[in-house]
Structures are given as C-alpha cells and as structure tokens.
Amino acid sequence: MKFPDEPSLLAQSGAKLELAGNREATVDGCGGVLVYTQEVVCIRYGRGVLRFTGRGLSLHSLEARSLIISGYITDIAYAARNSLLPELKQSDDKG
Fold first, then answer.
1. Are 86 and 93 in contact (CB under 8 A)?
2. Residues 6 or more apart whose Cβ sits within 8 Å of residue 61
3. Is a pLDDT exceeding 60 seen at residue 11?
4. Considering only CA atoms, which of 73, 17, 2, 79 is closest in space to residue 40?
5. Hey, which of 19, 37, 61, 77 would disulfide with 68, CB 3.0 to 4.6 Å?
6. What's the CA angle centered on 26, arms 8 and 60, to 5 degrees?
7. Which class is 7-94 in CATH?
8. Burial category of 39 from C-beta neighbours within 10 Å (exposed 0-12, middle 13-18, buried 19 and up)
C-alpha cells in the first residue's frame, strides 16, 4: 500500500486517519464524500481531498464527521482539493 507523500499536511488539518492493515481505514474529520465506487472513495479531508483506491471498497459507520472504509486498499493519496478531482473525472469518463 502506498501512503501520502506529505503526511504532515494531514496532521495540520486536525483530522485523524487510522489504518487497520490494508483492509480498513477509519477517518475522523471527513468533510463529505465526493466519489464513492468499489474502486475509488474520495472525501473532503482537512483543506484537501483524500482518495482511497482499491477493490471492493465500501463505506460503513457514516457519522457527522467520521466514516470507515473497508475493502482491499491499495493506494491512499492526499492533495489540494482541485488537483485530484479532474483526475477522478477523467477516470469516470473511461468506464
């Protein structure tokens, strides 16, 4: 599993991300779900976007500002809001 290149950006947001291996991620500080498929989950997180890529992804325990993502997580990316969204839009157009 690949982790975000700049984890310090995640800490600055005051949000919390916990991983249980590559099968489950608990996210506290979620600002909303932007994309949700079995291959990609993209959420607002702090001042940016957090994207999970994998297989069989699903959302659980959706609460006001937290959620659990389960499945086989292969990649986690964090970036400024606008930088991941066009990439996701292009991948949606291919399918």
1. no
2. 67, 68
3. no
4. 73
5. 61
6. 145
7. mainly beta
8. middle
Q: Return the domain boundaries, the chain.
A: 7-94
What predicted TM-score, i.e. pTM, was given to this entire model? 0.74
**Structure-block tokens of residue 50:** 């957090």
Beta bridge partners of 40: 53
CA distance 24 to 21: 7
- CA 92 – CA 11 distance, rounded (Å): 30
Cα dihedral sign, 36-87-72-78: negative
Per-residue pLDDT tens over the stretch 22-47: 999 999 988 889 999 999 999 988 87
Residue type for position 78:
Y
Distance, CA of 65 to CA of 55 (rounded, Å): 24
